[in-house]
Write a structure and sequence with these properties.
heterodimer; A: 316 residues; mainly alpha; globular; B: 482 residues; alpha+beta; Dna Ligase, domain 1; 5-stranded mixed beta sheet; 4-stranded parallel beta sheet
């Protein structure tokens, strides 16, 4: 038996990340479309641009931050590399390269998902239809996830998939918390207000954590508690703690099981990140600066990705 | 039993050609009794609806080939015609024997021309046709291969004439494609038209991958059990990429591209997460020209620098071997009946389409006399370039062609205009006869095995003889009856 081709390791790592990105974009758009309207004071769609650091790119192309343009930008716009249609297109291209390793169901689902998006018209994204569209995208991403769980052979490729998925999830959750803490609420005066509560609701829903949060914290919806929940609750599939931990464990297992060498740096970085999120306490994070903490995590994820690429992917 | 009066084939008129279901004037219908019965149990509307569902499924599955139009990549589905093409057990026996014989002759010929060249020394095939052929690879001279097998995978294009016999139209000894459709077409039939197969014993085609990896492994001098095999593809942009994926999956071997491979110490390695790993046998779906920039085209980015060095050190086997293209050339094709006779001392089981070699005096005179009824083809050209079809040419064109032929007879062969058989095919308005050909696939390691089936291509346009997928061709499931 031989090891996984470097090219395919890279393709599946990124395929996982692309679908996860797509899933997150759909969640954020859906929540913004459904719950953002309670807030009259600020443009909720601006927050989406902030979340992905796209303000400059968007403003250069559009005179105003109109909701429908922002929706288009993140769904069907081929010029935005982070749009849903591009993420799914990239994922399908990667799947094509991976085709010998994927089940027919997995490939077919992505292929059909992609062609459905290619046939979607801008007019199908007006107002109340945004939510339906996002629900459909989410359903497709979840079906993909289910097919991975059910049909992907649990060989090396499965580990690379899991590592990519969890690193991307960790990154997406940090963005969500970061933007909430620093952009949605510019002044302290508003903390605890009605607006604030609905915004936190929206954030929890974006991370599929609203119901669970209620179970954990029966009373009160504060920024601190929500942040603690999203960043540090081990039980939440999208929390930074659980995803970084999972990514690290998968990497350890991968290296051990297939006796891979040259990945010392990646492993060290992943272990250090997992340890950092394991030990973290919310009061300390807030005291030392939420943004700085999150920035560190995001930098770590970038570095781990680079080290994994260096150890395993095809060098050009 | 003649053409029935109810159901899908009720109004079918098999026309003037040999029909794959009804023969000439219905004399074959008894052999295809059951399938005709099943087809007649269906109505056109539902048959069409189910056919449409197949097309959608092909798209969803991504069973497509890529064409490039105005620099845009378009994925096309090869249209599937659900009415199968039937080959009886005794017909198949003859095809199988004929293909095995033909492959044996091709391999003997290649081993000889790159070896002692007896056939050239004996003047059976003119030397210049071989050594001056653009597909002749002088660097292979003196090479011997395990089992003397040069052509591991061969696709033999057959047509059925008006007399009901099969004739060889062309040998494909380089990188024949289409076998994935043979297997996928069967899957489509089984999934969407299982009722068509009820009570009919059809020989399976699903073990092609197993046979292929076995045949390839047999090429490794270190022993088949120790052979690490891979399929080398030009990559996702190649029009046959789907087939490469299919074959790698069916064989359970890695699908590699040039950039995945590296030659070190005259050995071929794959770049994997675990470092460099050795390969022994490579089923390459890259043409000779692009395989190794060190010895062939320097500008090739698809190939693997140094792979030929590894080959000559016998550190890697390549299938098909380099230089097999000379054997499937039009110029050599004309000599195939004599090549069979020369090496095997047998008469060909499957004949060539009647072919006249114009460098020979009688053949030249015959061609000149009958030019208005003949197809004249220049040798060494491909894609129909320079072909003159007598019945369709004007007087001036014929005169011009005659002049060219006289000036350089060696450059031409001539054949009668082909009468391809037809097969009932679903059309917009009903079921009508359409011309078909057949490409069986043979795998050779230490012996030759022929996949019981083959690719039936069908010219979907009325009256058309062009079955190519790029020009309105489709395909059919091909049933070899057990």
């Amino acid at each position: 038996m031989h090891n996984l081709l470097s090219r395919q390791a890279e393709a599946i790592f990124w395929m996982a990340r692309q679908i996860e990105r797509c899933n997150n974009v759909a969640r954020v758009l859906d929540v913004t479309a459904s719950f953002g309207r309670e807030d009259d004071s600020a443009n909720p769609w601006s927050a989406v641009l902030a979340l992905y650091s796209d303000e400059a790119v968007f403003d250069a192309r559009y005179a105003e931050r109109r909701a429908e343009d922002i929706v288009y930008f993140y769904t069907l716009d081929r010029e935005n590399p982070n749009s849903i249609i591009n993420n799914v297109g990239f994922a399908r291209e990667n799947a094509r390269a991976l085709r010998p390793l994927l089940s027919t169901e997995m490939w077919t689902q992505l292929n059909v998902f992609n062609s459905t998006l290619l046939q979607t018209k801008r007019s199908q994204l007006r107002d109340e239809k945004v939510s339906d569209f996002c629900a459909e995208v989410k359903r497709n991403c979840q079906t993909h996830g289910g097919l991975v769980a059910e049909t992907l052979f649990r060989d090396e490729e499965w580990y690379f998939y899991g590592i990519g998925l969890n690193l991307e999830r960790a990154d997406q959750t940090t963005r969500l918390v970061d933007v909430k803490y620093h952009i949605l609420l510019p002044s302290n005066a508003k903390v605890g207000s009605q607006v604030d509560v609905s915004q936190w609701n929206a954030v929890l829903r974006s991370a599929a954590g609203f119901q669970a949060y209620r179970r954990v914290y029966h009373r009160g919806l504060t920024g601190e508690k929500v942040a603690a929940f999203l960043l540090l609750d081990q039980r939440l599939p999208r929390s930074v703690r659980s995803t970084t931990n999972r990514a690290c464990k998968l990497l350890e297992k991968l290296i051990e099981r297939y006796q891979l060498s040259g990945a010392d740096q990646a492993l060290k970085q992943a272990q250090s990140l997992a340890e950092q999120t394991e030990k973290a306490r919310i009061d300390a994070i807030i005291a030392n600066g939420m943004h700085e903490w999150i920035d560190d995590i995001q930098c770590d994820i970038i570095q781990i990705t680079a080290s994994i690429a260096d150890a395993f992917f095809l060098k050009t | 039993m003649l053409i029935p009066d109810t159901g899908l084939l009720a109004e079918y008129d098999s026309g003037p050609f040999f029909d794959e279901m009804f023969g000439k004037g219905g004399d074959r219908a008894s052999k295809c009794r059951r399938i005709i019965g099943h087809l007649n149990g269906m109505d056109l509307k539902s048959f069409k609806r189910r056919s449409k569902a197949v097309d959608k499924e092909l798209r969803n599955l991504g069973i497509t080939f890529t064409v490039y139009k105005n620099a845009k990549q378009i994925d096309r589905v090869l249209p599937f015609d659900a009415i199968p093409r039937i080959i009886t057990a005794s017909e198949w026996k003859k095809i199988e024997d004929g293909v095995i014989q033909r492959v044996a002759a091709l391999n003997a010929f290649l081993a000889d021309i790159y070896g002692k060249q007896h056939i050239l020394n004996d003047g059976v095939v003119p030397r210049d046709l071989v050594v001056k052929n653009k597909n002749y690879r002088a660097l292979m001279e003196g090479t011997t291969l395990p089992h003397d097998t040069w052509v591991n995978i061969c696709g033999t294009d057959l047509v059925r004439g008006d007399d009901g016999a099969f004739y060889v139209l062309e040998d494909n000894a380089r990188t024949p494609s289409g076998v994935s459709y043979v297997v996928e077409n069967r899957h489509l039939t089984q999934r969407t038209f299982p009722d068509l197969m009820r009570g009919i014993k059809v020989r399976p085609v699903s073990d092609y991958g197993l046979r292929l990896v076995e045949g390839l492994s047999q090429m490794w001098p270190g022993g088949a059990d120790h052979a690490e095999v891979a399929l080398l593809s030009p990559g996702v942009f190649n029009s046959a990429y789907f087939e490469h994926v299919f074959l790698a999956r069916e064989m359970g071997v890695p699908l590699v591209e040039g950039r995945d491979l590296l030659v070190e110490d005259d050995k071929v390695f794959m770049r994997t997460t675990g470092g460099l790993q050795r390969l022994n046998v490579i089923y390459r779906r890259i043409d000779d020209d692009f395989l190794d920039p060190e010895v062939f085209r320097e500008d090739s980015l698809l190939g693997v620098p140094g792979i030929m060095r590894a080959f000559f050190k016998k550190n890697v086997m390549l299938a098909n071997a380099i230089g097999t293209g000379v054997a499937d050339d039009k110029a050599i094709y004309a000599y195939m009946p004599r090549i069979v006779k020369y090496y095997l001392d047998q008469d060909p089981i499957l004949n060539n389409v009647e072919t006249h070699i114009c460098r020979e005096k009688d053949a030249l005179l015959y061609t000149l006399d009958n030019m208005h009824e003949m197809v004249v083809k220049p040798v060494g050209e491909s894609g129909g370039y320079g072909v003159v079809i007598g019945p369709r040419a004007t007087k001036t064109e014929l005169a011009k062609a005659r002049k060219k032929l006289k000036a350089n007879p060696s450059n031409f062969i001539s054949q009668p205009v082909l009468q391809l058989s037809t097969s009932p095919t679903l059309t917009r308005t009903g079921v009508e006869p359409r011309h078909v050909d057949l490409r069986p696939f043979a795998i050779t390691g230490d012996s030759t095995w022929v996949l019981p089936g083959g690719l039936t291509r069908v010219a979907l346009k009325k009256g058309s003889l062009v079955v190519n997928s790029s020009q309105g061709g489709g395909s059919k499931d091909t049933w070899v009856l057990a």
